[in-house]
Amino acid sequence: MTEPMARFPDLQDKAVLITGGGSGIGAALTEGFVHQGAKVAFIDIAEEPSKDLAARLAKDSRHVPMFIHADLTKVDAIRRAVKTAQEAHGAATVLVNNAAFDDRHELLEMSESYWDDNQAVNLKPVAFAAQAVAPGMIAAGGGAIVNFTSTSYMLNIGAMPSYTAAKAGIVGLTKGLAGRLGPDGIRVNAIAPGWVMTERQKKLWVTEEGLAAMMDRQCLKQLIQPEDMVGPCLFLASKASAMITAQVLIADGGMM
C-alpha cells in the first residue's frame, strides 16, 4: 500500500487500537494509521501474518506498531489486550473495531452453538472493546470509535444469517454508544464496506459472474480494494469529522 494522499496531523502520535488488524481490511487500516505517525497496536488471532506485518511496517514508521495476540471472543482477552496496549502507548483515543468472520452458513442447518460462536466473533467484541477503552478515552477528554459493519445486511443476502444479523447489530450498537459516550467527547461511527477484494474473498467466493454482477450495480466501475477503506476510517478517526457521530458511512462504490 502506498502512503495515503490525505494527511491528518491530529492523528500523529495518537494511540490507536485496531481489532483484526493483521490481514485483509485490517492490515490496510494498520498500515494507514502507521503512515499517519500514530502509535498503533493491533489485535489478531492469526500470529504469523500479523508478525510479518508488524515487522514490515517497523522498517519505516514513526512508531513501531505493536501486535497483540488475542482471541477476541473472550472478554477477559479483550481487556488484557487493551491493558497491554495502554501500558505501551497510553490510553487509546482511537478504537477501530474491524475484526469479523463472514462465514457462509445455511439457515435451515444452523445450530444454536454456531449462532452463538458467530455472534461472539462478529458482534460481542465490538461492545466489549468499546467498554474496555472507554474509561481511558473519558479520562483523556474524548476520542473516536470506528466500527466496521457491512452492506451485506442491507442486500437481503440469505447465505449468512448470523453474520448479517451481527452486522446490523453493529449499527444499533454504534448509535447506542454514540448516545452514551457523546457527552464524554467520544464520537462513534460505522463504515459499511461493499464487496472488498481481500485475499480471503478472492480465494473463497469471487467468481467472474459475481464480479460482473457487482460491476453492473456499482456506480464506480472498479474493484473495491482493502486500502479503499483507509481514507474513510482516517477521516472518521480524525478531527476532520469533529461533529460527526452516530452515522454509517457506506463505502461500496455506489452499489446501494
Automatic annotation (TrEMBL):
User: Which InterPro entries does this chain map to?
Assistant: NAD(P)-bd_dom_sf, Sc_DH/Rdtase_CS, SDR_fam
What is the name of the protein in this document?
Answer: NAD(P)-dependent dehydrogenase (Short-subunit alcohol dehydrogenase family)
Query: Per the record's keyword annotation, is Oxidoreductase included, yes or no?
Result: yes
**GO MF annotation list:** oxidoreductase activity, acting on the CH-OH group of donors, NAD or NADP as acceptor
PANTHER family hit by this protein? 3-OXOACYL-[ACYL-CARRIER-PROTEIN] REDUCTASE, SHORT-CHAIN DEHYDROGENASES/REDUCTASES FAMILY MEMBER
The family this protein is said to belong to: Belongs to the short-chain dehydrogenases/reductases (SDR) family.
Keywords in alphabetical order, please.
Oxidoreductase
